[in-house]
């Protein structure tokens, strides 16, 4: 990103761990599995950097709770749905310009596969709330 770009300020939450029941296989819905989520939330955080006041930025615990509610909530088939829902809820709930969401299934049920995991990443922009 270019310096001075409206998206150059980011708050990052990495490797948040959750347990959910998303997937197309019946076993995934019955037994569940681990998921990790990485967030990059873009906005103008200069005021917070100068004021040192929580009210001038995003509360990380609120971002975490929103993400947890989606991942550990009602089961859905696709990681794409999980990532898209997290992104849209963040854009609707916080004063941000964009969000990148990466949802990883570390142990996907792929017979005979050796891999570190599968992931879906989305980047969505939205109007900042004033």
Q: Can you describe this structure?
A:
The protein has 130 residues and is an alpha+beta fold. The protein has a single domain (9-125), classed as GTP cyclohydrolase I, C-terminal domain/NADPH-dependent 7-cyano-7-deazaguanine reductase, N-terminal domain (GTP Cyclohydrolase I, domain 2). The protein contains four helices and four strands, in the order βαβαααββ. A four-stranded antiparallel beta sheet has the order 1-2-3-4. It is elongated. 22% of the residues are buried. The mean pLDDT is 90.
Helix content: 25-40%
For the biggest β-sheet, the strand order reads: 1-2-3-4
Number of strands: 4
Low-pLDDT stretches are: none
What's the rounded overall pLDDT mean? 90
Rg (CA only) = 16 Å
Order of helices and strands: EHEHHHEE
Name the shape in a single word.
Answer: elongated
What structural category do the secondary elements indicate?
A: alpha+beta
Strand content: 25-35%
Named at the architecture level, the CATH assignment is: 2-Layer Sandwich
Distance between the amino and carboxyl termini: 24 Å
Q: Into how many domains do the coordinates divide?
A: 1
User: Helical stretch count?
Assistant: 4
Might you state the CATH topology name? GTP Cyclohydrolase I, domain 2
CATH level 1 name: Alpha Beta
Q: What is the CATH homologous superfamily assignment?
A: GTP cyclohydrolase I, C-terminal domain/NADPH-dependent 7-cyano-7-deazaguanine reductase, N-terminal domain
Biggest β-sheet, characterized?
A: 4 strands, antiparallel
Outline of this structure?
The protein is of the alpha+beta class.
């Amino acid at each position: 990103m270019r310096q001075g770009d409206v998206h150059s300020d980011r708050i990052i939450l990495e490797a948040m761990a959750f347990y959910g029941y998303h997937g197309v296989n019946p076993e995934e819905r019955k037994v569940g599995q681990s998921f990790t989520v990485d967030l990059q939330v873009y906005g103008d955080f200069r005021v917070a950097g100068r004021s040192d006041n929580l009210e001038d930025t995003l509360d990380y615990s609120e971002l975490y709770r929103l993400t947890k509610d989606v991942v550990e909530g009602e089961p859905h088939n696709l990681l794409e749905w999980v990532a898209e829902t997290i992104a849209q809820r963040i854009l609707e709930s916080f004063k941000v310009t964009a969000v990148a969401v990466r949802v990883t299934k570390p142990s996907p049920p792929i017979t005979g596969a050796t891999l570190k995991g599968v992931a879906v990443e989305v980047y969505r922009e939205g109007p900042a709330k004033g």
